[in-house]
Design goal:
The complex is a heterodimer of chains A (582) and B (248). With 582 residues, chain A is an alpha/beta fold. Chain A contains 16 helices and 20 strands. In chain A, the strands form five sheets. In chain A, strands 1, 2, 6, 7, 8, 9, 16 and 17 form an eight-stranded mixed sheet that branches. A four-stranded antiparallel sheet of chain A has the order 11-14-13-12. In chain B, the strands form two sheets. Chain B has a five-stranded mixed sheet with strand order 2-1-5-3-4, with no helix packed on it. A two-stranded antiparallel sheet of chain B has the order 6-7. Classes of the chains: A alpha/beta (582), B alpha+beta (248).
Chain lengths: 582, 248
């Protein structure tokens, strides 16, 4: 059965970015639907721990310009300076809005929002560490996501829960007219015809074996965009979070180091002092992750396989740990069998965040192709989008900020620009390709098993596209992923029933993961330099003469094009290129 | 290792049944969810919800050896064998371990789970003392997994009327928030024999909460506020009084 719906706007994804966008739209009285494959508060924003950055100056003097500088330096100069200015300048207001909605921020004695130090966040252009990251203990994402959902309840936003997006609807002009989605509970298809389609579908960290990401982070938006021939930007840049629990992959917030925790190797050395003499454990994440990987390579790792390091925080004392890091204590006891009040936590760099994504303007409008033409009716916000504010490496606590600043901006742009806009006619046979794809997955026979191929894909990505990349690994890896894509075309499931068929949704997710993996491998192989999270043995240095540009991967033919980094901010002077030292 | 799992697929099955799986446990399998994922690899027709696998998203609440909990943070070693898994009770089963949570969320929506404050907000943040902020601890951390509400006999008895422990915990979260000024309205809405007073302190909720929260304590807090609020209306008591009056 196919159900038909019409809306002014549809938001695909119910995490922080999607829910902030829908607040803007529903608050202005637009007919808006949020379509989410999980109940909104199950979205992965819920797992963000440490905080959300904004130069509120609640603890010490602070300026958005300092935040902007830190973000540009953190991005290894690949972030667009106009977008970064926009985000940092609008950050304080965005935080106050969350507070007014009811977000339960921790407080200082004077009643203002509590802020903690975080990696790469400094005062006066790199002078020393600063408390800029607003926090709700170590459950900031949870508090933010629930607050945003609650605001949507107040605004009576319409939700389509447990509907998984399958394909974008694009007409002959290339305009986006909505989405085809599958209702999990019934197995029915839905055609969501809309004037504006906003993707807020989150990340894709499940292309890797060891990931802090939830099972749902399968890059569905990127898969749909790729199938609709929309280019993907900067996909070689994946953040490895320095402190995932060894073995389990579960995240331990950078807030631990912000509160005074530090890393030690098997010789009990505070090794970060060697790699980042000034910022030490609060250097940016790519730097800390590489340092850990280097310690392990040189035989100073801990654990049975000597493949991790220790994060020690017992010196902070039980009281502070219980007040500011209670979730970390809980997670460490459960997943590492360690009580951090007494013993150090074994950790290892673990895939955490996708800096790249669907290219957009500052208003969230999707830009496509070499000419970067705006796609009518199509927006992307949050982790699935690439504005680009994070460039080659995101600073911790800038991602929650990205969600709400650009979620709001996209919503506002839709309100401002879509007055009088009419629904365009849907193309004929709009569901044809999607139904063919679904039928193929249901075909019985000796076809490929999605679970096995998923495991294979994750293993390839882990081995060939990790913290340190070599030309041999990348070449061989790309071949393997191209191969896997052919095989993934032929996946089929044994269970063909309609009601809540999770085997089917997992197969569909795999078809999205492979698009992301392919874009990642191809972009990584092509970029012959080391910048931010992309580190190559054969090109160990950043090369601004040849590579100060964004990668644009074309899913149509797998080719790569490039566009220059925007060095010109909106209202202030450009921050010139500098060597990046912490 | 043997695990018995409740199975029901409305497309095929006339009746639910339990299926026993024999699964080989690896050293790296620590949590119950690890085993369930292995079983799903053997039999892709098994349906369940899961996402964060670290106890913060609230997707994988299920009834484990008779007690509600999250599969992702339940250690295999802590469980009596053979393990018996059923969907959380008291809600309609959609398929296997997946239940229909509409009723559960309807109650959540019904308590107006958002900050109400008639004064226009200041330019910056509303101030709140650390002491006032502390009152929200043990309340805001709820992950809406449904373990508490679906283990509550009062909810089983009146699922359409009793708000249930999860909803009431959130009601209390806004009642004690110094920034919220709608206490009177909130208390009046809850001053109802079914919505609030259906709770009889059975305490299953606090016993099963995977986040260590105590809805029971929060409900006691609401009842206390009903007694001490400045303009008590006591709808429940008036109803009783009214009955006595009409008998005269």
């Amino acid at each position: 059965m196919v159900k038909n719906f019409e809306f002014d706007s549809i938001v695909v994804g119910g995490g922080g970015a999607g829910l902030r966008t829908s607040i803007q739209l529903a608050g202005a009285g637009q007919s808006v639907a949020v379509i989410s494959k999980v109940f909104p508060t199950r979205s992965h924003t819920v797992a963000a721990q440490g905080g959300i950055a904004a130069a509120l100056a609640n603890v010490s003097d602070d300026k958005w310009l300092w935040h902007m500088y830190d973000t540009i330096k953190g991005s290894d100069y690949l972030g667009d300076q106009d977008a970064i200015e926009y985000m940092c300048k609008n950050a304080p207001e965005a935080i106050y809005e969350l507070e007014h909605m009811g977000m339960p921020f921790d407080r200082n004695n004077d009643g203002r929002i509590y802020q903690r130090p975080f990696g790469g966040m400094t005062k006066n252009f790199g002078e020393s560490s600063i408390s800029r990251t607003c926090a709700v203990a170590d459950r900031t994402g949870h508090a933010m996501l629930h607050t945003l959902y609650q605001k949507n309840i107040e605004l009576k936003t319409q939700f389509f829960i447990e509907w998984i997006g399958l394909d974008l609807i694009r007409d002959e002009d290339g305009d986006v007219l909505g989405l085809i989605a599958l209702e999990l509970q019934t197995g029915d298809l839905g055609i969501f015809h809309a004037k504006n389609t906003i993707f807020a579908t989150g990340g894709a960290g499940r292309i890797f074996q060891a990931s802090t990401n939830a099972f749902i982070n399968t890059g569905d938006g990127l898969g749909m965009a790729a199938r609709a021939n929309i280019s993907l930007e900067d996909m070689e840049f994946w953040q490895f979070h320095p402190t995932g629990i060894l073995g389990a992959g579960v995240l331990v917030t950078e807030g631990v180091r912000g509160e005074g925790g530090y890393l030690i190797n098997s010789k009990n050395e505070r090794f970060m002092e060697r790699y980042a003499p000034s910022a030490k454990d609060l250097a940016s994440r790519d730097v800390v992750s590489r340092s850990i990987a280097q310690e392990v390579l040189e035989g100073r790792g801990i654990g049975a396989n000597k493949n991790g390091v220790y994060l020690t925080l017992s010196h902070l004392g039980e009281e502070l740990i219980n007040e500011k890091l209670p979730g970390i204590r809980e997670i460490s006891i459960k997943f590492a069998n360690v009580d951090p009040v007494k013993d150090p936590v074994p950790v290892v760099p673990t895939v955490h965040y996708m800096m790249g994504g669907i290219p957009t303007t500052l208003n969230g409008q999707v830009r496509d192709g070499v000419k970067q033409k705006e796609v009518n009716g199509f927006y992307a916000v949050g982790e699935c989008a690439c504005v680009s504010v994070h460039g080659a490496n995101r600073l911790g606590s800038n991602s929650l900020l990205d969600l709400i600043v650009f979620g709001k901006a996209a919503g506002q742009h839709i309100l401002d620009s879509s007055k009088g806009k009419k629904l365009k006619k849907l193309p004929n046979d709009v569901t044809k390709k999607t139904i063919e794809r679904l039928k193929k997955i249901d075909t019985k026979g000796s076809l490929e098993d999605p679970r096995e191929l998923g495991e294979e894909l994750r293993a390839v990505m882990q081995k060939h596209c990790g913290v340190f990349r070599t030309p041999e690994l990348l070449n061989e890896g790309l071949g393997k992923v191209v191969d896997l894509k052919q095989r993934i075309r032929n996946i089929s499931i044994k269970d063909n029933s309609k009601v809540f068929n999770t085997a089917r949704s997992e197969a569909l997710e795999l078809q999205n993961l492979i698009e992301v993996a392919l874009a990642t491998m191809a972009s990584a192989k092509n970029r012959e330099e080391s910048r931010g999270a992309h580190s190559r043995s054969d090109y160990p240095k950043r090369d601004d003469n040849s590579w100060l540009k964004h990668s644009l991967y074309s899913p149509k033919d797998g080719s790569l094009a490039y566009r220059p980094v925007k060095m010109q901010p909106l209202s202030v002077k450009s921050f010139p290129l500098k060597e990046r030292v912490y | 290792m043997k695990i018995s799992i409740y199975r029901f697929n409305p497309d095929k099955d006339k009746k639910p049944y339990n299926k026993v799986y024999d699964v080989k446990r690896a050293d790296s399998d620590t949590m119950l969810l690890d085993l369930l994922i292995k079983i799903k690899a053997m039999d892709d027709s098994l349906s369940m919800r899961m996402s964060c696998r670290e106890g913060v998203c609230g997707s994988d609440a299920m009834n484990i050896n008779g007690k509600n909990g999250l599969a992702c943070v339940t250690k295999i070693d802590d469980l009596k064998k053979p393990i018996v898994i059923r969907p959380i009770p008291g809600l309609p089963v959609i398929r296997d371990l997946v239940v229909d949570m509409k009723q559960f969320f309807k109650h959540y929506d019904s308590i107006d789970p958002y900050l109400k404050n008639k004064k226009p907000p200041p330019k910056k943040e509303r101030l709140q003392s650390p002491e006032d902020r502390k009152k929200l601890d043990g309340l805001y951390e709820c992950i809406q997994c449904g373990a508490c509400t679906t283990s509550c006999p009062s909810f089983w008895w009146k699922p359409d009327k009793f708000v249930g422990p999860a909803g009431l915990l959130q009601a209390y979260r806004f009642l004690v928030d110094s920034r919220d000024d709608a206490n009177e309205e909130r208390l009046e809405d809850l001053d109802d024999p079914d919505r609030l007073y259906r709770c009889h302190n059975i305490m299953n909720c606090a016993d099963v909460c995977p986040k260590g929260l105590s809805p029971s304590k929060a409900i006691a807090g609401i009842k206390k506020m009903q007694m001490t609020t400045k303009k008590p209306k006591f709808k429940t008591l008036k109803k009783i009084f009214h009955v006595q009056e009409s008998k005269k």
